[in-house]
Every structure is written in C-alpha cells, then in structure tokens.
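Hi R.,

Here's the chain you asked about this morning:
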Amino acid sequence: MALPPRAATVKTTAAKMATQKGNTSPEYNMPLDKGGAIFEWIPSGTDAVDSETVFGNQGGVPGTWRRVREDTKGANLADANATIQVGGKAWRVLPVSTLTDNRVLTLGTTNARAGDQLTITRLDVEAFTYQIDNGGAGVGTLVTFAVSVRSFADLQFDGTNWLLKRASQMP
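And here is the predicted structure, written out as tokens:
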C-alpha cells in the first residue's frame, strides 16, 4: 500500500467522513468502520461513488474520497462466468478443483484508474480453459489459461482498457 505523505485523520464512520466539506488540497482520512483503510480526498474527483472504494462529500469543494489501493487478496473466483472490479481487491485466485466448464472472467472498469493492477492466479487444474477478457472500450480476450495448467496473469488498466503485463504457467 502506498502510504500517504502525511498522517490520516481518524473518523468514526465513512458516513461521517462523507459529510465533511471538501478541501482544495489532498488530505487523508481513516474511517474506523472500513477496517483501517485509508481514503484520499481528491479535489474535483469525479469517480462513481460506490460506498466502498469511493465516497462523495456534502458541500464545500466538489470531489471524492478514494480508497488508497492495497495489494491484498480478494474473494476467491468461482465456477461461473463473472465480471470483477478493482474494488474487490487486487489479487484474485481460482482455487483447486473449481472449474466444471470453460469460463470467462471479465475485468470491469468501474472506479478503475490508470495504473491500477490486478493479478489473477489459477490453481485449478481441471480440464477446462479459463479466459480473461478486457471490460474496457477495446473489448477482447487478454489471455486464456490452458486446460489443466496452474497459471497467473498480471494486468494493468491504462485509463480505458485492461492490458496484459505478463502471464506464465506455474510448476
């Protein structure tokens, strides 16, 4: 996690943080009801408010509170075609013995910012493919993990589309 350049102010709740009038310069808050996550005030920020990674404000300078990204593991991927967002954490895993058919995972763009990264790890070695698609404007397949092979892919958002940085098979 990138640490803020100055200390974060502790707030009791994210709702209390969102009632704070916006300031003209960046600042940091840590609402206790969000598990110690740090949020950065972005003056004139226009990200879509999702009440998890982005909060709005009431009054003062227009802008948004954006969660400072952390490299932590999100919920495991399931045996289904699905779309995931960056708000679900940066590392996602398809566990052993999960797939029962070929599946497609789409990387969504809600609240994604240029430079955001996702890592997808396939531990499953069932005889099915696992395809990762770009959910941005330039839709298409980024990588398809081969059948019965443990693999991973690192992907990065360029502000419009998800791009494949690297992918590899694992022993």
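One quick note: Helices lie at 14-18.

Cheers,
M.
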